[in-house]
Design a protein that fits this description.
This protein has 584 residues and is an alpha/beta fold. It is built from 15 helices and 28 strands.
């Protein structure tokens, strides 16, 4: 596959009867082993097991089974004939994949019930086995062998679509625009494929802008499904255009509503849904939480070579969907209505979500940098995460990392691979008391990393372009030993300091500690329970808050260990307690 795709012309929709170009499937570019995993051929016996969950029917040549933008897309296994997956852009029809006898259609959007990004058409008369969404979920939940085959293919197909920019979104932006970084981050963390066109580098941009009657001042520009042009859209506008939440009934009373889709929330979703609970997860941005900003987690059980926070979150998200959990993003919780049962989670947009039981997993966020002008450069030189996207922006340059915990250590090691030099600033006298030993040793052995102890940033400086774009140009920090102010021409600062709990939305419903974290279990005093009007004869469960049937897990919980594994464990434990609360 070649460069970024050009958007479709909404005035010239493709003719469904137009044959696709006779080319090889452009998605089938990985190694032969990966190709076989992406496009496995089911045996006759396996097809028979698929058929037990659906219906068999004939297809005619040229019949369109799925159109771009369709919701509740069926899963098809091919018994006879061929089905082609077609991508429609710029008035052209391009074949993405070809499914023959024994192959099956779909990728992770099919599992989630989201809109189709492609057209599915029969090449010749044939036969298929058709499964609706419920039938597909039943299949992957009850047949272990087929579940492994289908889930692996779905995940690998999404990875390849993402790698090749073969989504239904074209983003036009600039690396000097903080809005562009925000949109890219939103799409990446929601694992949605997109093509990116850089205003500063790619050819043909002016022609594209003229075609859609937009100009550089409108960036970032999102062209959604080749039909809708969004100028500097909010994350919510993008989600609505792509139909992220179309399949979710937010007004339905749920057994369990989980607020926050970090590791703790996703773990609770997986365990809750797999045990038959009706689960809805709502998150203000995207699955993964703060962990998704980690470039590589090397001390998480079962991943000896490490795993990125984004990859871990994507796997957990897909696993939750496999068991039937719904995840709504971006949906920010505005208030917990705690004076009634079922409880109501009020959102900043849309109807409130009723829940018999609630798990709070909203986590904590890094403290914002307190230096002068820091807010002005957020997303334009000041970042609160270090992923591959940010690393591309600072390749070959000097960077600053602020923080002495594991997240800062992981970012330092990751950025040192591509940056010219990394300056690690900490207020303490060293790293031993706050960072895992393996990270400390690795940092000590890196020649392009300098540790600055007892140091802090005091000022940031930069300029703005005539188009209103701003970027960091210079950093000033104070050396704690000498009190001297050093000035460095550095354009990228990564901040990972402390944690502020995301609990303001709780509005006095729950007992909090002096730092704003949610108290649970034995941490709740008799005074806390009396003030909350605790109505039960029993004491609160281990992870239960001062409200019966409301639990807290992960970083948002008072006394929690700020580790991914700890949050995952608490999410799993909470589900066992949820069952008890539902039976009371």
């Amino acid at each position: 596959m070649t460069g970024p795709a050009t958007p479709a012309d909404p005035t010239t929709p493709a003719d469904p009867t137009t044959p696709a170009p006779p080319v090889e499937p452009i998605i089938a570019t990985p190694s032969e082993a990966n190709r076989e995993a992406m496009f496995p051929v089911l045996t006759a016996a396996q097809l028979a097991r698929v058929a037990a969950h659906g219906t068999e029917r004939r297809t005619t040549a040229g019949e369109v089974l799925v159109e771009v933008g369709d919701t509740d897309v069926p899963f098809f296994a091919v018994s006879a004939g061929e089905l082609e997956v077609l991508r429609l852009f710029s008035g052209t029809v391009t074949r993405v994949a070809l499914h023959g006898p024994g192959n099956f259609t779909g990728e992770v959007n099919t599992l989630a019930g989201r809109r189709s990004m492609t057209r599915l058409r029969a090449v010749q008369p044939g036969a298929v086995i058709e499964l609706g969404h419920d039938g597909l979920l039943a299949l992957v939940q009850t047949d272990a062998e087929l579940s492994e085959i289908i889930m692996r293919a779905f995940i690998l197909r999404r990875v390849e679509l993402f790698a090749q920019g073969l989504g239904d979104v074209v983003l036009v932006g600039s690396e000097h625009c903080s809005g562009t970084l925000r949109v890219r981050e939103f799409l990446i963390r929601n694992n949605h494929p997109y093509a990116y066109i850089d205003l500063d580098r790619d050819d043909g941009v002016e022609e594209l802008l003229d075609h859609f009657h937009v100009d550089a001042a409108d960036v970032p520009i999102v062209i959604c499904r080749g039909e809708v042009v969004l100028r500097n859209p909010s994350n919510r506008q993008i989600a609505e255009c792509l139909g992220f939440n179309d399949a979710i009934d937010q007004g339905q009373v749920r057994d369990l509503v989980i607020v926050g889709a970090g590791p703790g929330g996703l773990a609770a979703a997986v365990y809750g849904a797999s045990e038959g609970l009706d689960v809805l997860v709502v998150d203000a941005t995207s699955p993964g939480g703060q962990a998704a900003a980690s470039s590589r987690i090397e001390n998480y059980l079962g991943f000896p070579t490490g795993i990125s926070g984004q990859e871990l979150a994507a796997r957990a998200y897909t696993q939750a969907e496999k068991f039937g959990a719904h995840v709504a993003v971006p949906r920010r919780a505005r208030r917990l209505a705690c004076d009634r049962r079922p409880y109501l989670v009020e959102l900043d947009d849309g109807p409130p979500v009723p829940a018999r039981v609630v798990i709070i997993a909203t986590g904590a966020v890094y403290r914002r940098l307190g230096a002068d002008e820091a807010g002005r450069f957020e997303g334009a030189g000041v970042y609160y995460g270090a992923t591959g996207m940010e690393a591309q922006l600072c390749r070959g340059e000097e960077v600053v990392v602020v923080g002495g915990g594991n997240s800062a250590g992981q970012a330092t090691v990751f950025l040192a691979d591509t940056a010219k030099h990394v300056h690690l600033l900490v207020r303490a006298t060293g790293l031993a008391d706050s960072m895992s030993r393996y990270l400390v040793r690795r940092i000590e052995g890196m020649p392009n990393v300098t540790l600055h102890t007892r140091s802090e940033i005091v000022a940031l400086e930069g300029t703005s372009t005539p188009e209103g774009q701003t970027h960091l140009e210079r950093v000033r920090w104070r050396d704690g030993a000498t009190q001297a102010i050093e000035s460095h021409d550095i354009r990228h600062v990564f901040v990972m300091t402390g944690a502020v709990p995301s609990t303001k939305w709780l509005g006095g419903c729950l007992a909090l500690d002096e730092k704003g974290f949610v108290k649970t279990g034995a941490a709740l005093s008799a005074e806390d329970l009396a003030a909350a009007g605790w109505p039960m004869a029993r004491a609160p469960h281990l992870l239960e808050t001062s409200l019966p049937g409301v639990f807290a897990v992960g970083d948002v919980r008072s006394g929690s260990f700020k580790r991914v594994a700890s949050a995952v464990g608490e999410g799993a434990i909470a589900v066992a307690l949820v069952h008890q609360a539902l039976h009371e």
